[in-house]
Each structure stands twice: as structure tokens, then as C-alpha cells.
Design a protein that fits this description.
Chain A is mainly beta and about 375 residues long. Chain A contains three helices and 19 strands. Chain A has a 16-stranded antiparallel beta barrel. Classes of the chains: A mainly beta (about 375), B alpha/beta (about 300). The complex binds zinc ion (ZN) (2 copies).
């Protein structure tokens, strides 16, 4: 028997058909999920207005809609409901099949697949929050979340291992950085705002590999790189490189260990300006990493520890570090989870400066979910 | 400027990779992937030498929660037929099939022609636990349903490979007859027992019980997916004593604490058995059924 191939005419037909898809989509309602994530927190961080007092916070509520649009495409929306109102956290479609070869096309806005953790929703983390090194190095405020188009392809690989390459063309908004005003006469920032509202296309590439160990355990490796313009007027760029590894090792039918680590290297040109020479830039090249281990037993209980160490992305590049312990229990088929955590964060200081006191933060978070999107991903 | 050049290079590399991946290939056997070993075993019995079968869920693991691993997607990427359990048991299979990027795989919902049991008649919500809203999906444990699934698989294989359609159909009929023979034999052996009741951990065994005319007066789980409470266990102790229930069937992927407690309290015999057969070998499906009967009658 001979496998059929898709002719260009067929691909054009499918594309047109997808374009006309709304006529057949929405047979019934999409899957709807709502996840609440309230928490209690006590911190001795003097920068926190609630320091040394118990803070009760509703956290961010996540609303997810997802379903197939047609036989080729899936659509997905995540709305974040928080004190700022309702935001479109993610909204994308993905053409899963029908494109030549095994290409997938994803378009819209989503948490970008740089490394392992950034693409994951925070309610699936076993710890309270993402790692400082990621928020320090990756573009964006809370996560590296961008609008764009992504093509991905599964590459040939031996046996049942998997190798996937993806390349995304991004809007580049999250790379933008507002330069500090020099107060020098004629500084463009005080005249026209330094074009800080402009962005330029950015790129993100990723290669990820997976291999089974035995029947059920697995090993993941990934390499990511992203680059974009952080100041259009000065033409300065931010580039981040990352390597990540994850192992999920089952040691019985009902228990497993997850070990995960990422290393990141930032290469960022920070725009500057002087009356004498005009635009200039200074480059920072800090690096850092995190690692965590999480042991899950009886499929419902887990406990683990994390550590991270990274250089601040400024001129001094002092080493910051954080150590954390966490534990949790999931009840009733993942509909409710309780997570406790403690983190001790130590800010680095430049040589000769006084070392600031470490900051301790205790948290207890409840994650409850209605609908098929759960507190943690299997 | 330099990044634009590398962008184009990568696009060209991706385009080349997909041309290689989609190049015409001759295929000797029909590659079948099944969610469960049971469906895989039936497909192997029906497909004979014309099929090569792989399965996803391991028989010792919980089929309700299967981790979607990229390796499974790679297996399905080469498949021509995917066998789903349906009735919302293997919703994880959709993610595997989507991730396979395979546009040619035919998906057969093997529950299409079975008569589901325990179909809720009222609105289902969280109070009923992780109940399957379209009915109990563990239907493969009734050999009569094995026969129905075999005929559906034969029809699907016949569409893919019309040259062997007659063979597929004949093998399915033979298989269905063997299933019925095994069941009739099982009914006779169970009928000889003085007490034909059993407790099961999860509601995995309702089709099995119906197939061999056994009664399941209680489950260790108070509602599907929810571990037992002390109060529920005490009710079970009373029930087991009152009705002198002789056996408790326990799936290997649930905690053994509650069954062990019940055994200590009442002397009930705990049989640890997977609801799924060992492998996708053609004889594995019925061997599993026959072994279950043998364990229950205690021979
Ligand atoms: Zn989520
Ligand atoms: Zn079930």
C-alpha cells in the first residue's frame, strides 16, 4: 500500500476550508474551566507594604475556553481575572494537521515556549511562584507572553524519541524597555519620548527532545533562544539563550520524582544617550540557573526543594540566590489542591556594599478548579 | 540584519525537513495504536499478519489518567488506525492524536456499538465524584462487547485494506464466537459458587459482573475517583458481614490500605487484578477474562 501525499491544490483547499470554518464550528459549547488561586502570605520583605502581617489575597482567577474549531484546528483562550480587571492572557489557534509534512501553525497570543516553565500556567507549579531568574532575564513583566505566529515541525529521530523544532515570529512588545531620562538638553526622551511605544519583530526558536526511560519515565531536553529590539530609537537588542532539562522518574506505580533545571544567559544592550555623542549603549551579560526536585507519593502528596542563583541584569551583576521548600496535597481528583511554601531570597550586593538581609516568605495557596482544565497537568 | 538571514535559513531547513517527512513510503502492515491493551489484543486477533499493534496505557496503570508523552505521539504519527475506548475514559488520547500531527490516521471509537451501563439520568456534577457522564466506560470487560468491538475493528481495517476485508470479517466472527464461549463457560463456573457477590474498588467491573451474572453491592470508592472515608468503610464492613461477600476485586493502581483494612476486619479475600489484559497479543484479551474467572472461583 502506498501512502498518499498532499498536493498544493489540496493544501490551498484546506486553507480556504479553514478560513470558512466558522460555519461548522461551535456545534456545542466549548470546554469551560475556571481556576481560583487564593492565598495567604507572610513576608518580612520591607519593600512589601504588608510585611510582617498576614495577607489574604484572592490571587488571579483563570478562565479557560478551548475546543476544536474544525477537524484541523483547535482554539484556546485564557482570561486572567485580577485586581486590574479582566485581561486576555492567551488567545490562540493551532492548525494541528493538514499542513504539509507534520507542520503545525500556531497564531495569536500565548505564554511562549522558552524553556520549560514559562509556557506552563502558574497553577501547575508545585511551588508558589516562578523563579526570579526567569522574570529577571526573560522579556515581559510576569511571563514571556507575546503575540505572534509559530511554525513547528517534528524532526526525524530514532525509535520513539521525539525531536521538535519551532520558530516563532513575534510582535516584540515585551522586549521594549524605556530608557532613563538623562536630563541632558536635547535628550530625545524629553522631546519625543524616545519612540518607546514602538516595537520591532522578535524571533524565538526552540529545539526540544524527549526520550522514554523504561516504560514510563522520561527525559526532556531543550534549547531556546530569543532576540528582539528593546529600544527602537537606539537600535539596542535583548537576546536570551536557555538550556533546560527535566526528568520524571517513576519509582513505583504511585510515586515519582521530578527533577528540573534551566540555565539562562542574557545578552542585553541598554540604550544610553549623551549630549556629546548621541545614542550609545552598554551591554550586560549576566547568567543564572534554577533547579528543583519534587517528590510525589501516593499520587496526591508532594514535597520538594528549589534553588536558584543568578546575576542581576545591571552594571554590578551581583549574584542573587533563593532557596525554597514546598509541599502540597491534591484532593478529589485534582479539583482542589493545597500548596505550602517557604522561600528565602538573598539579594546580592556590589563589592564593598552592605549585604541586605535575606527575605523570608511563607505562603499557603488553595487552587480549585471547575471544568476539565486541572490544578496540575498529568 | 544577521538574525533575518538565520531566520530564512531555519525556515528553509524546516521546509526541507517536512518534504523528507512526507515523502512517499511503502507500508507493509497496517499500523494500529490502541488506548488500551484490550483493544490492541482484539485488533491483533482480527488483523492477524496484516497489522502491527501498539498500545498506550500500561495494564498496571490507571487508564483514567494517562500522561501524554511525546513518545506516544511519535507512535501515533506512523499509525493508520487509532482505537479509542470512548465514553470519555481516554480523553487523553485526543491530545496524543493531535500531537501526532498525523492527518491520515482513522480514529475508531470502540464504544460506538456497545450498550453503555450506568448512564446518568440526571445532571452530573462534582458531588457524584469523577463519574463518567456518558456511562461507565469499562465495557471491554464483558466478552460480548469484545465481540462487538472486533466487528467494528474488522470494518475499519477493511476500509483501510479492502483486499483483506473478508479475512478481517471472518477473524472477527471467530473471535466473537470465542468470546461468547468463554463467557458461557464463565457463567457456568460462577453459577456453581454459593455466593455470587463481590465488592470492587472502582466501578471498573460492572460489565464483567453483568457478563457472568455476579452482583456488586458496593464499591470501596464512595463515588468514582474519591478515596474512601472511615464512615464509608464501616458501612462496607457491615455490608460484607451481612451478605457474607467473599471477594473484593482491587485494581493495582489504587491504594491498598482500604482493601487491606476490609480484609482484616471481615476476612474478605482481596484479588488484585488489572481491568486490562497483559499485552496486545491476539490471545491476551480472553486469557485475561478466563484468569479473572479462575481467580474468583478460587482455582
Ligand atoms: Zn491553566
Ligand atoms: Zn472509571
Amino acid at each position: 500500500m502506498i501512502r498518499r501525499r498532499y498536493s498544493p491544490a489540496c493544501i490551498i483547499f484546506i486553507s480556504l476550508w479553514i478560513a470558512g470554518a466558522p460555519a461548522v464550528a461551535g456545534v456545542v459549547n466549548p470546554n469551560i474551566s475556571v481556576i481560583g488561586q487564593p492565598y495567604l502570605m507572610v513576608t518580612d520583605d520591607p519593600a512589601n507594604p504588608d510585611h510582617d502581617r498576614l495577607r489574604m489575597d484572592p490571587g488571579e482567577t483563570e478562565v479557560v475556553f478551548d475546543d476544536y474549531l474544525n477537524p484541523f484546528t483547535r482554539g484556546y483562550f485564557t482570561l486572567a481575572l485580577n485586581e486590574d480587571g479582566l485581561e486576555l492572557e492567551e488567545g490562540w489557534f493551532r492548525i494541528l494537521r493538514g499542513l504539509p509534512g507534520a507542520l503545525n501553525l500556531k497564531g495569536g497570543k500565548w505564554r511562549q515556549g522558552f524553556g520549560k516553565l514559562n509556557a506552563q500556567h502558574p497553577h501547575t507549579y508545585p511551588f508558589f511562584d516562578g523563579f526570579h531568574v526567569l522574570s529577571e532575564f526573560l522579556p515581559g513583566d510576569e511571563s514571556f507572553n507575546e503575540s505572534g505566529l509559530e511554525l513547528s515541525e517534528r524532526l526525524p529521530s530514532p525509535g520513539e524519541s521525539s525531536l521538535v523544532a519551532s520558530l516563532a515570529w513575534l510582535q516584540g512588545d515585551s522586549f521594549r524597555q524605556v530608557r532613563g531620562d538623562t536630563i541632558g538638553s536635547g535628550d530625545p526622551i524629553s522631546l519625543s519620548g524616545d519612540r518607546s511605544e514602538e516595537s520591532r519583530p522578535a524571533v524565538l526558536g526552540r529545539l526540544s527532545a524527549f526520550s522514554l526511560i523504561g516504560e514510563r519515565s522520561g527525559l526532556d531536553f531543550g534549547l531556546s533562544a530569543t532576540s528582539g529590539t528593546n529600544n527602537v530609537a537606539a537600535g539596542t537588542r535583548t537576546t536570551v539563550y536557555g538550556a533546560d532539562a527535566k526528568a520524571k522518574l517513576w519509582n513505583s506505580e504511585r510515586s515519582y520524582l521530578v527533577l528540573q533545571a534551566e540555565v539562562l544567559k542574557l545578552d542585553r544592550e541598554d540604550a544610553g544617550w549623551s549630549c556629546a555623542t548621541g545614542y550609545a549603549h552598554e551591554t550586560v551579560k549576566p547568567w543564572g540557573w534554577y533547579i528543583y526536585g519534587d517528590y510525589n507519593w501516593d499520587l496526591r502528596w508532594n514535597a520538594g526543594a528549589s534553588f536558584e542563583r543568578y546575576q542581576a541584569a545591571d552594571r554590578d551583576q551581583a549574584w542573587n540566590s533563593a532557596f525554597g521548600l514546598f509541599g502540597g496535597v491534591a484532593l478529589m481528583e485534582e479539583t482542589t489542591a493545597f500548596r505550602v511554601g517557604w522561600e528565602r531570597f538573598r539579594t546580592g550586593s556590589a563589592p564593598g556594599d552592605v549585604q541586605p538581609d535575606p527575605v523570608n516568605t511563607f505562603t499557603l495557596r488553595v487552587i480549585f478548579s471547575m471544568g476539565p482544565h486541572k490544578t496540575h497537568q498529568f | 540584519m544577521s538574525y533575518r538571514i538565520s531566520f530564512r535559513t531555519v525556515v528553509a531547513a524546516l521546509a526541507l525537513a517536512c518534504c523528507l517527512a512526507s515523502s512517499t513510503r511503502a507500508m507493509a502492515k497496517i499500523k494500529v495504536v490502541a488506548s488500551l491493551t484490550d483493544l490492541g489484543s482484539i485488533a491483533a486477533a482480527v488483523g492477524g499478519d496484516q497489522v502491527e499493534v501498539k498500545t498506550i496505557a500500561r495494564p498496571q496503570s490507571d487508564p483514567h489518567h494517562v500522561e501524554v508523552l511525546p513518545s506516544y505521539m511519535v507512535s501515533v504519527s506512523k499509525a493508520r488506525l487509532y482505537l479509542k475506548v470512548g465514553l470519555m475514559l481516554d480523553q487523553w488520547a485526543d491530545q496524543i492524536i493531535d500531537g501526532s500531527r498525523n492527518n491520515k490516521v482513522e480514529i475508531l471509537d470502540c464504544s460506538a456499538h456497545i450498550i453503555p451501563l450506568e448512564v446518568p439520568t440526571t445532571r452530573v456534577d462534582g458531588r457524584q465524584g469523577d463519574v463518567h457522564p456518558n456511562g461507565n466506560p469499562h465495557y471491554w470487560l464483558d466478552p460480548r462487547n469484545g465481540g462487538i468491538v472486533a466487528r467494528d475493528i474488522a470494518a475499519a481495517l477493511g476500509r483501510i485494506d479492502p483486499a483483506h476485508e473478508v479475512e478481517f470479517r471472518q477473524r472477527a466472527e471467530t473471535f466473537a464466537k470465542e468470546c461468547e464461549d468463554s463467557r458461557v463457560d464463565g457463567v457456568a463456573r460462577i453459577a456453581a459458587l454459593p455466593n455470587r457477590t463481590m465488592i470492587t474498588y472502582h466501578a471498573s467491573w460492572v460489565y464483567f459482573a453483568e457478563a457472568v451474572a455476579m452482583e456488586v453491592p458496593g464499591h470501596v470508592e464512595p463515588v468514582p475517583g474519591i478515596p474512601p472515608t472511615g464512615g464509608h468503610l464501616q458501612e462496607l464492613v457491615d455490608l460484607i458481614r451481612q451478605r457474607q461477600i467473599p471477594v473484593l476485586l482491587q485494581e493495582p493502581y489504587y491504594s491498598q490500605d482500604a482493601p487491606e483494612f476490609l480484609a482484616r476486619q471481615t476476612g474478605i479475600r482481596v484479588i488484585k487484578a488489572s481491568p486490562s489484559c497483559d499485552s496486545a497479543q491476539p490471545d491476551s484479551y480472553l486469557a485475561h477474562f478466563n484468569k479473572l474467572i479462575a481467580e474468583i472461583v478460587g482455582s
